[in-house]
Amino acid sequence: MGASHSREELISDSDEEEYEEEEENYQDSKDDTPERSSSGRRPKTPSSLDEVAAKLEALKLKYPTSNTPNPSLKNAVKLYLHIGGNTPKAKWVTSEKLTSYAFIKTAKIDGQDGAEDGEESENEEESGDVWWVLKVGNKIRVKVGVEMQLKSFGDQRRVDFVAKGVWAMKFFSDEEYKSFVSKFNDCSFENTYKMESNDANKVKVYGKDFIGWANPEAADDSIWEDAEDAFSKSPRSATPVRANQDLREEFEEAANGGIQSLALGALDNSFLVGDSGIQVVKNFTHGIQGKGVYVNFDNGNQRSGLNSVHSTPRKALLMRAETNMLLMSPKTEGKPHTTGLHQLDIETGKIVTEWKFGKDGTEITMRDIANDSKGAQLDPSGATFLGLDDNRLCRWDMRDRNGIVQNLATSTPVLNWTQGHQFSRGTNFQCFATTGDGSIVVGSLDGKIRLYSITSMRQAKTAFPGLGSPITHVDVTFDGKWILGTTDTYLILICTLFTDKDGKTKTGFNGRMGHRVAAPRLLKLTPLDSHLAGVNNKFRNAQFSWVTENGKQERHLVATVGKFSVIWNFQQVKNGSHECYHNQEGLKSCYCYKIVLKDDSIVDSRFMHDKFAVSDSPEAPLVIATPLKVSSFSISSRR
């Protein structure tokens, strides 16, 4: 399991590491075994590159020192490469004692050309398909953007990033460091929005009310501090999550077949949805365990079986006090859209009906479904749920228009569209979630996050502009004060609180936030952890821990990246004086997390319901499912 701090900051604790004098031999040092400090203390954070520079100067080699760069070399930097991954031999080595960087606008991201900083060919400009690229010496050429996972260390005049490896650049003055960061942000903005980075265009992208998202230093962060004060007064705040608390594995069990999704219950049972059926497991205070009933999709009943399902269910939604489950299967493999779903009676283990989505006599598609509210699955009389498609947001009712339960003997009963709106075009909805009172948050392909009140699905009360990356998953706290959006490369945490003209504190679900909008905070992997996770592994399904009671506060956030389950302390993320935020440029980004590493790609990671938290733990158990196994972890104090 990973440390609570960035692992890239902990790797060079030795005072005796040797570095190759000749640049071209730097790769050979991966065979060296770094000696450990005899003190056995936790490594300092993060002085490794300064140590490298000091050692190189002590060798009195014939190249410019850190204080005397070549005056004729524009944009001079020192370049370092991280080798050894997360093994005991991991360390930084000097790749280029002195080199230079340039930002180039070109269509040849992976190619080579002789363009200088800011130059481009006339043909490329006419084609319109050009990008800003960072070029460092002859070793790095990478498109500028969030995929680089750039992390800055202002106190060290250093930036780390990913470009077919993990690299670090150190600058020779504060001015050069700040100039690079500013230029990088401008190039990233232009690559994302295809317009020059200036104040006027930022207003076009973010809107005048959200300009703090573009200029975080000018944003009003007081609402974060107010929310932090409120958190400290919430129930169980006397047992805050401490830095010395750790995750302890309680159970691990093999599953019956390949797990595709996880449906956690708040009552007696939880459910593992697999390729051929659903495995029922028991809920305990230390996790889920025990092989209970197994429900096969093809149970021999041709009418009630799942033989008409297009593919394995990708979404399972518990309803009616967790006695029923709605199963949603994609119509086409690789795409989430479907024209209907199946209703499973968990107590009998049978599919009782196949529902169709329809409006005004026409079959329509949905891409996602959700409960009416955070605790709606516990309602024994629940008959409605929410549906989302690219340009639709609605509520479905399993009763007919007169409120009478439909005759399930009907061959293809149609769900009743009771509330909602079909948008003409352009919304590109991707995901949604509900608060405790039934307010709705929706994430979109363009990165926008919209908030809808419980009274209307036609007009969003608030629309956050996003940062340009598609929102692939979204969650919201029970009280609606916090939103967590998932993108491929980072998580975005948004505070919805604002003060209205009468001095009352509200959320963006209940009123228009106006100009007092706090800047969001980002949750990221360090460049090293991002690289170790793999280039094709992206953030998925970030969510808060689970509460369904007014006055209680979620305490953790969890997301999945490949074989990593990544956990953040919610209170720590909100703390503006937290060490992660020191010496940062732009939006505050939190890199303090814990990692659970599994042997296989993780299907889902979720915290159990708050009721399963025991007295000596600040949180309910964390459940992590891979295709073949399910594990439960409790949070406990280190010994």
Automatic annotation (TrEMBL):
Residues 1-50 are annotated as: Disordered. Residues 38-207 form the DUF7135 domain. Residues 1-10 have a biased composition (Basic and acidic residues). Pfam families: DUF7135, VID27. One of its GO terms (cellular component) is nucleus. InterPro entries: CYPRO4_DUF7135, Vid27, VID27_C, WD40/YVTN_repeat-like_dom_sf. Residues 267-582 form the Vacuolar import/degradation Vid27 C-terminal domain. Gene3D superfamilies: YVTN repeat-like/Quinoprotein amine dehydrogenase. Residues 11-26 have a biased composition (Acidic residues). This is Protein CYPRO4. It comes from Gossypium hirsutum (Upland cotton). The lineage of its organism: Eukaryota, Viridiplantae, Streptophyta, Embryophyta, Tracheophyta. The gene is LOC107910228.
